[in-house]
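Aggregate trends can hide what the representation actually does to any particular protein. In the encoding step, the backbone of a single protein was reduced to a row of integers, each denoting a local shape. The record that follows shows the chain in one-letter code together with its fold in token form.

***
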Amino acid sequence: MAARLAVRRTRTGGTVQARTAGRQAVAPRVVAKRTQNKAEKTRASRVVSCAAFGRKGKAPASVRPKAGGRRDVLPVCKATDSKAEKLVGVDVGGTFTDVVYTDTATGITLTHKVPTTPDNPSRGVLTGILELCERHGIDKGEITRVLHGTTTATNAILEQDGCVTGMITTEGYRDVVHIGRHQRPENYSILQEVPWQDRVLVKRRNRLTVKERVAPPDGAILEDLDEEGVRVAAREFKRKGINAIAICFLFSYLNPEHEQRAAEIVKEEYPEAFITTSAGVSPMFREFERFTTALINTYIGPKVANYVDNLETGLINAGIGGDLHVMASNGGACTPLMVNEKPVLTVLSGPAAGILGAKWVGELSGSNNLITFDVGGTSADIGIITNGEYEMANARETEIAGYPLMVPQIDIHTIGAGGGSIAYKDAGGAFKVGPRSAGAVPGPACYSRGGTEPTVTDANVVLGRLVPDNFLGGEMSLDLESSKVAVSNLAEELGLSMEECAEGIITIANANMANAVSSRTVQKGVDPREYALVAFGGGGSMQAAEVAGMLNVSKVLVPPYPGLLSAAGLLVSDLKYDTTRTEFQTNNNVDVAKINRDFQSMEDELSAQLQKDGVDKKDAVFTRFGDLRYAGQGYELGVSFPLGEITEANMHEIWEEFHKAHEREFGHYFRDSTIELVNIKLTAVGITEKIQEPTYPEGKQEGALSTCTSLFRVNGKMESFETAIYDRWSIPVDQELEGPAIICQKDTTTLVPPNCTFKNFSNGCIEIDTTSLCNTDDMAEVDKVDPVTAAVVRGELENIAVEMGYKVERMAYSSIIRESRDFGTALVSANGDQLAESKQSTPLQSGPIPGYIRGIRKIMEERGEVFEEGDVIMHNDPYGGASHGPDIGFIVPVFYEGNLVGFSGCTAHHLDIGSLTPGSCGIVEAVDAYAEGLQFKAIKVISRGEKNIPVWHMLEDNIRTSDMVKGDMEAQIAAAQQGALKFRDLFKKWGTQTVEGSYGDLLSYSERVMRQAISELPDGEYSATTYIDGYQYADEPRYKDLPICVTLRVKGDEMEVDLTGTAKQLDKPINMPFSGTVDCAIWLTIRSILLDSTIHGFIPQNTGLIEPIKIYAPPGCLANPIFPAPTIARFCPGNQLADTVMKALAQAAPEKVSAGIGNLKVISFSGARPDDPSQYWVHMEIFEGAYGGRNGMDGMDAIDTLYANTRNNPIEDIESHLPLRVNKYELRENAAAPGQWRGGLGSVREFTYLADGGASVEGEGHKYKPWGFDGGSDGETASLQLTNAVGSTEDMYSKMSYKPAEKGSKFTAVGPAGGGYGNPLLRDPRKVLDDVLDEYITSETAEEQYGVVLVGSKSEGYTVDEGATAELRAKRGEAVNAV
């Protein structure tokens, strides 16, 4: 073979170049297929193993552990008949670096651990390999491959330790990566951080634009690339010394020509620059997600490349043989060359290796369906393997540190639960565990490193489930007394015994983990009972058996070395690369030729990459997939595509398989709906030699070493057990042993609870039978619900609501639900108390659900109707609890043992309900409720399980876009029915008394925390008034300049909200339903301020929170209209009401509020469908507002506000499916309200009609500015312009009834800017300078408004003249004081 290249690399002009390093080596060995299919092995065949060490049954002297030393030799692996390799896997963790060595010729496998070296992780890697080789006499030069799991990329992102980055993007879209999807990360927080705004990957001053434009559906070039503009940008970055540059153009996934050419130009001008193109790293639609992924790649690129180069150099200098391969997030290894080009591929490097290791364990154990359970000190990682294949994440759901990350990744879900998770009693008296962790330092109390708070590890010590003098193989002793003190202190607070408290800590932590697993399996359509749980990491095997029992999983698999499984997983990896093309083709108009061309192009691309890695195309394995959905849906399902030429017959089979996949995941399919092929995907794998099946080491298998006393809860009672203690390598093979048992080894401890059995197999794996722990029978009823049970039931309720949210979001058709997330799901008790809501919900949707149920009950009682099992009730009556007509709710009554025990509900905004004009917003001239569309007052669309067909016919005949609306309704019904089923199962599991008792605890808890928050306010009366535009074009004064008046009366732990003085109701639809809009706007605003989730953590949203708050609105006012006053346009007035509540509360809690928010606007675009003029297309878009400045923080820019929290629609989705073009989407400039903390900026969006159509608008804030606070200036108003096809421009009011727009017409929406907070003269001059450099304000504004004097120029840069600034501010301050 040829001398190996790419051993040592230099960087020239940002391009990684390979050169020989003066030593001969073979290319990576590739085998066409595995020598054996481990998954097909029977248990009997595994018992018959080869000799314990090596082929002759005895280890060479060089690999025998020293007498009395640590045992770090894995069960010996069976020798392979393929070409032998000597492999090393190295996984870098936060505390330790794990090393696993295997020789595939002899089957010998060795392990080693060394401390991680955070300042330079490569030093720990090299130390680990060298120490292992020296200890066991391994010739380091004979190593053929080093496989590495690294955290370098992850840490650079988490620690904000990347490089200064530049960006070149399409003119008009400079701020796409700053605005994002305009959704806040938290529903209930004023003081939250928005990662893509507060921790920017590229500053605005370094986001440069050039003219170019590509358009769907085929990537046609609308405007040529301005090559000179690219050169100017490259020179500017070079002048600034910014050598990491991302090139991000719209629709580059369809046609990357402009991005590629721009990269060439930048390279010519700036050879040493590191360059990323967005289509090169993530060729998929959704511009914010793709651009951000490219920026992450650019941000971490130089750092990761330097790390890999240094590691390769270190391996060479140390004389360590073998090619270096790095684990990627997709579960495959890649070469340093690929890592240096696309470092973003390694972000989940370590966890991905753990999934591979778990898959290997499943193969060894004959289990193809696995839930992977990797528990460390701080967190737990959960993955799913089905039929021997790990699940891949949906690209739109993956993120890191709050940033979207759209690259192929194994689906790994992380929760804050581990051995170091801290248990505590929160301010409301609830017993909680995690996510706060003691970490490695100080660690649990038993570590004796200064920790005093009780953790999961301390609880295990107190209960005798860990052996204090045999922790980490005896290398560390645990301090039992310190654990007892820590747990006892908490027990005293909770009114529990020490043992009850310890058991409660473990139960709550296990329940949190089980709920996380359940949530992931439900999302994937997986029944966990059909899976085995693979336990690894430092804490996985301690908790796994009880977690499995909670999930009804009957089998737990424990690998030979659970704490080293990620390192071992590296040794079963293959070279693997992925690529994607977005298609947007439908089953009624598919271009098979294009699909074939694209697949061939993709195969050529990946074959070339593998060829660089020494893998011939004939040795590669290719796999094809497609992402499909019903047209209009926003979530895709993966379907396999055959290799070779795709034919029409193949496509027919693919469409059929999609129907089946949809039915598997969601419970039904839509035979007559159009199917859309969104993406095609290709994976190429170069199969390499791997670690083989282990064999248990020979030696004395004496059984249990000793016993200890341990405590467990059995049948609801705490009992003491004599527990056997085993050394991992002394357990008899193939004997069924009984628990309780504690199995000790160097890297972890395994716990087998009472009534469970376990067996140690010859391959070193332990299998625990947890059948006895599964919930096959009802839980025993209790007289009083203890804190532990209450916490567990609460977690299960919340999990059900979250699962409902995923269901409706994935199944929905319209963009307003699937993209904007304008929906809500909730569980409600039989007496109407909200218990839990989906975290994906917008608050304005989930909050009103109890009101829907109250309204339904009232109507049904009046009619003499009753709830029956199998019913599904549709409701949208704004005078019967609904928020307004377009927000249609579907409610399912829940029965258990013949009794009504609760309700499961889902609400969502629908694109059309048969109103006056197309769309369900902008119906601003409706004169009464009847003019707003169809009214559904407690209609049983499904009665006792039977569909009410006439109702569905009525919907089809009276609603525009009825197919889409019906599809959304089906999604809501499926979500509500799923919630009802799970809710019923909760009663079956725990019993009625326990569940309803837990309700009481949950509601009382929420009420306590709200009362406590109110009691911290000064008693008194706080009033505020704001104004809404109303109808500025109206002649009569009563229609415009309408006051919203709020008076808050605080007395002790209660608050009264009085809306007296608010304008009278109108015969126009900006009236706000008291139940469903007014009450929710008030409750949600008060909780977001007083119980801000950024400050207080997660507090469940339920009826208990509203008990201390009483609301009064005079009948007949805007906030309490009398039927039949119209209400369909209540959205923006309701948000203004929320803002007025905040303005009043600012007087009592100034540090908790923002200055005035910029209100929202909703536009409904519509027109005749080009393919069928008898049908309509309708698109609703919520135009973002902005927050005012906050105490210590600037306002959030261009974002949804207060009681709403929806998302915008991707430009690349809008233009691909609608006759609209988005010409511009950027921030307003020089509009930030001055303040010590400036107001947030609004956006500017411009749309062009590509066909005749029209629009209607509802909004506020064109006349009245957002209020400034504490010396801050008022914000800026919004505006809307319509430019017709011939160029004539008309300023529009904030409300516009349906207005036709001919092809070529343009809508330009300018969003409001929030108010300033605090005296502008107190703003840090450096922040003012940053605002000037980022072009939020001008240098003139800096001096006029902030008193900051800048010297320099825009072209050369500015600096602060500190002396002149101090002098000017002093004069301004004197002038203010004089006034």
In short: The radius of gyration is 32 Å.
